[in-house]
Amino acid sequence: MKEEILKLFRNSAGDYLSGESLSTELGISRTAIWKYINILKSDGYTFEASSKVGYKLISTPDILNHQEINPYLSTDYLGNEIFYYDSISSTNTKAKELAGDGLKEGTLVIAEEQTAGKGRLGRNWLSPKFKGIWMSVILRPDLNPIEASKVTLIGAAAVYKAMEDFNIKAHIKWPNDIVLDGKKVCGILTEMSAELNKIHYLIMGIGINVNIGHDEFNEELRQSATSLKLHTGRSVDRKRLTASILNNLEKLYNEFRISGTIESSVEICRNNSILIGRDIKIINRNEEVHAAAIDIDNDGHLIVKHADGTTESIFSGEVSVRGINGYV
Ligand code: BT5
Q1: For residue 245, what pLDDT is reported?
Q2: Can you tell me the distance from the alpha carbon of 48 to that of 58, in angstroms, rounded to the nearest whole number?
Q3: Greatest C-alpha distance within the chain
Q4: What is the enclosing helix (H) or strand (E) of 105?
Q5: How far is the CA of 66 from the centre of ligand 1 (A)?
Q6: Closest-lying ligand 1 atom to the alpha carbon of residue 212
Q7: pLDDT given for residue 317 in this prediction
Q8: What is the pLDDT of residue 117?
Q9: Which distant-in-sequence residues (6+ apart) come within 8 Å of 57 by Cβ?
Q10: Which end of the chain has the lower number of beta carbons within 10 A, N or C?
Q11: For the chain (length 328 residues), average pLDDT per consecutive 10?
Q12: Candidates 93, 121, 125, 186: which one to mutate for ligand 1, based on the most atoms within 8 Å of Cβ?
């Protein structure tokens, strides 16, 4: 009912709605309307009330639940169902649990804060409350498990496009980072449950530093991480950005579902790559190799050229890539 009341206010283009009209429209008593308005107030919505003309919605809270994201979503299935948490250990862990219970492709888990956010290979992911977008999507692609890393590129391309919608020009650092001003602003963690030749489900976890301030990063991250707010100098609307990522993700993922190719995503990753044309370090467990990044092929592999002139195609798996002198 809360969502239906909000919908009426959103459609009223900032006008007052009387208790009576709300009551008639929704088929509940005026006392019930008044109760719901009070609940919405305690959720962080503000209303102007006038005894003559009724209520006007003044502002909505900066939270990422279904009722706040849905008005900006144009997807068919991504984000239809949203599991929203004020605080959680890791949205990826929760999404895995839900996927194991059989929840549908497109189901989204989103939290205002993660207390044990995960990076790749057991690394940590800083996820302070209300300052970022910490979310995981359940996907069920019909794909051989060795090709799962392709999906990470679709995620990176979607985040890139969403930032572009906000006039923010980022770069993609293959395979799973988005970079601004030479620093990491977003990381993607794709995890899966599979048999030898069949994926049961895949979880795409996306973490974006939206409104994190300089002081909220620890000493180490200050060198390598940034946020959209630090880059633009102003707060960025997390709801619209979340919806824009999902809108872009569904488009790019649909191409893949229908044709099996990730060409549009690869093109975005290739054209906006921070690595191509640079000398890089490829770190695989304890081994470190220097090479020149020269391309990303249509399957999403990074093509590098070694000092002896041979080329190699690298698929993300467990490798980390760094610039010769630092993060990029
Ligand atoms: C990643 O790992 O970049 C994947 C991050 C995925 C986070 C999302 S949030 C929603 C979902 N739920 C989760 O639990 N995770 C996903 P990797 O490439 O391994 O990078 C991890 C490294 O990035 C760490 O070792 C730090 O050095 C650095 N790091 C940690 N937190 C950061 C942050 N907020 N911003 C930038 N860098 C960070």
Answers
A1: 98
A2: 6
A3: 82
A4: none
A5: 24
A6: 34
A7: 58
A8: 98
A9: 6, 9, 10, 12, 14, 45, 46, 47
A10: N
A11: 91 89 93 94 93 92 95 97 98 98 98 97 96 98 89 97 98 95 97 94 98 96 97 97 98 94 96 95 87 94 95 79 79
A12: 125
CA of 188 relative to ligand 1 center, distance in Å: 7
Distance 132 CA to ligand 1 centre (A): 12
Q: Say how many Å lie between the CA of residue 120 and the centre of ligand 1.
A: 7
Across the beta sheet with 199-209, the strand order is 82-85, 108-111, 132-139, 199-209, 183-194, 177-180, 171-173
> How many whole angstroms separate alpha carbon 191 and alpha carbon 320?
16
Nearest residue (CA) to ligand 1, atom 35? 225
Amino acid letter for position 159: V
Specify the pLDDT at position 51: 86
End-to-end CA distance of the chain: 49
Q: Please tell me the distance from the alpha carbon of residue 274 to that of residue 255, in angstroms, as a whole number.
A: 24
Nearest atom in ligand 1 to the alpha carbon of residue 177 is: 3
pLDDT at residue 286, rounded to an integer: 80
One-letter identity of residue 134: W
CB atoms closer than 10 angstroms to residue 145: 16
